[in-house]
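Amino Acid Chain and Its Fold in Token Form
===========================================
Scope: a single protein chain, as residues and as a discrete description of its fold.
Amino acid sequence: labelled as such and written in the usual single-letter residue code.
Position: the record begins directly beneath this header, with no further notes in between.
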Amino acid sequence: MMTLVAVPLAERYRDRLPIGESTPVVSLGEGSTPLLRAARLSRRLGVEVYLKCEGANPTGSFKDRGMAVAIAKALEEEAEAVICASTGNTASSASAYAARAGIPAVVLQPEGAVAAGKLAQTRMYGGRVIEVRGSFDEALAAARELAERGTHVLVNSLNPYRREGQKTAVFEIVEELGRMPDAIYLPYGGGGNTAAYGQALAELEGTPPRIVAAEAADRARTVASAIRISDPVHADAVRTTVEWTGGAVVTLDDDEILTAWRELVRSEGVFCEPCSAAAVAALEREPPEPGATVVCVLTGHGLKDPDTAARLSPPTVTVDPDPDAIAAAAAAR
């Protein structure tokens, strides 16, 4: 009987990551996420659209790629604990990988601003969740100060090992397509992932694809909670990446993001969290030349934010257990 064992990201891309013989492997089977062709979206827009489904990572978001490397390096450096500020995905990923490594994780989150699915994950993984009376940016400033005291290792994307791990998504995209795409669209919150994609492209040969970063118009209050970051710490790196690749930063209102979110579910059967759909909304707003091959990066799974899904999806219908009543209810959709 054949046993299938997931190859840790650090092993798969060892020659492209800052790890050595003394670096422990901390893995939950991250990476190797699906690249799905979006047939209906492709036909409607006249381009070849692929969806990089990063919600298939172990904790349901792209953060796992970078966290596998950051936590491994923290363990190698004999860290006693890790700390992060988070709108949700970093928190759950840091807590999971810290648990895997056997070290504590402290999570600072803006009070009342984190989606229920992410908060539940973080608490179950054993992360010490502390709500901060303030914004994400204030929580991050506090986390950075604690890290500077030497008591905790910061595992936000300011940690360069995080970006090293996250860049591997680009290598997978190129491997799966067999070439560079013409454009990559992805959500833009703090900008760490966009910076990581730019880093990966700089390491590869050939003309880079256009990088299009999709941000919310109201960064402080957008429904897309994962990119609810007012002051992106990687803004300069995003600007450099976008300019170098001939891309753009596209600013979207919540209606555009939610429209794309619903379309992905109903026309493609792909359920992502709202912020992920910003990539598709940006594609709708600024499509490339006809016939181009584009990749939209869906950074997190839809169950990360169950409350928004429940609030904005059609209500359930209750009927008696009668075939005629059930048929009538089904036809009324």
In short: Strands lie at 35-37, 48-53, 82-85, 105-110, 128-132, 153-154, 183-187, 210-216, 248-252, 293-298. The longest strand covers residues 210-216.
